[in-house]
Amino acid sequence: MLTFLGISMVVVFTYLIMSKRLSPVTALVVVPIAFALIGGFGLELGDMMLDGLKVVAPSAALLLFAILFFGILIDAGLFDPLIKKMMKIVKGDPVKIALGTAAIAMIVALDGDGTTTHMITISAMLALYLRIGMNPLILATISMLAVSIMSGMTPWGGPATRAIAALGLDANEFFLPLIPTMLTGMVSILFIAYVLGMKERVRLGVIVLKEIPEDALAMSGVAASVAMEEDVKRPKLRMFNLILVIVIMGILVTGIMPVPILFLIGFVIAAMVNYPNLEQQKERIASHAGNAITVVSLVFAAGIFAGIFSGTNMVDAIANSLISIIPESLGSFYPLVVAITSMPFTFVLSNDAYYFGVLPILAEAGAAYGVSALEIARASVLGQPIHFLSPLVASTLLLVGMVKTDIGTFQRFAFKWALLCSLAIIIVAFVTNVI
Description:
single chain; mainly alpha
């Protein structure tokens, strides 16, 4: 019963947001409540939802202050020189722009944080896409795929870290055999960027531009709808702002401070130094408030969904049902089954729910087939390109907000490319005996 209820909830939820019958916030709240009531969990709903909110609260705080931090720096013009430099390199060629996006995104994503990657990549490149006339969904797709590979498979990234911790594994034993698979993922991203760039080159041609007008620069990043006045720019403080970003990113990588607190401090410093006038500070905060509220509300709504999904034990029921229907003859291919099922599992679950709730169950079942926990852990991260399409992923909600689209539109555009990337790394992992 719980298995059927859980699968039905996921199907209905996915249909409603992809068909635009309901907004993501509404669907994330209404659908799980309705199915929980059908399942007879009405009296427990309050505690479940509160537990879900507690889990996502740090992510909500992180996104709020990350948006404000980078928003202030974008307003001050920190990324303007990078955009102009990129313009000189790519010279209006959509193929070069797409490949350049992939290179920047993969480099930035090495820090393991999706929010930072999207903030920097979209801030640096969106103005260029808008000026050339390229589809911003291409930019969003490439940035998302870069995070899914670079953050998803490295031991300091979220998914791999959870898999290693949940199964008590050695990070080096987990990661080193995965390097060829990870390189395959990077090549896949470059290939996808090339294909998407070629399509835009056919549609637009190579556009000859000398520089990006100020109005296009003003449309980059989270301030896309705000016309930036010249008095908002702070060219004399560019070096200070760059050092501030480097320091914040350095502390983030070392992990010596909680990330939401780190971005709160960074935002306060950036606002105080760049805009010491209180009225200007209020204006800059207000200019980013709309995007921040949209993203944070989505995160909290996702917490409601995750709290009910986990609290009703639908997650465990689906996992156990999956294990029970795997024939013994497929025992030797069990890691491949885990890799393939990680795509839908991680789409409907948060990483915490999957890696700490479902993965131990999968590993225990794998032991019955003589499959090591290392192989199960490696297999579990191979569905991350699909995972990052989920409305339960906070950084993806930020991403679609920055390119001014909705999650359903983004999913429809990016799904086939995410599936291609996942299948490519699964095949290579299988062929190279990583799984």
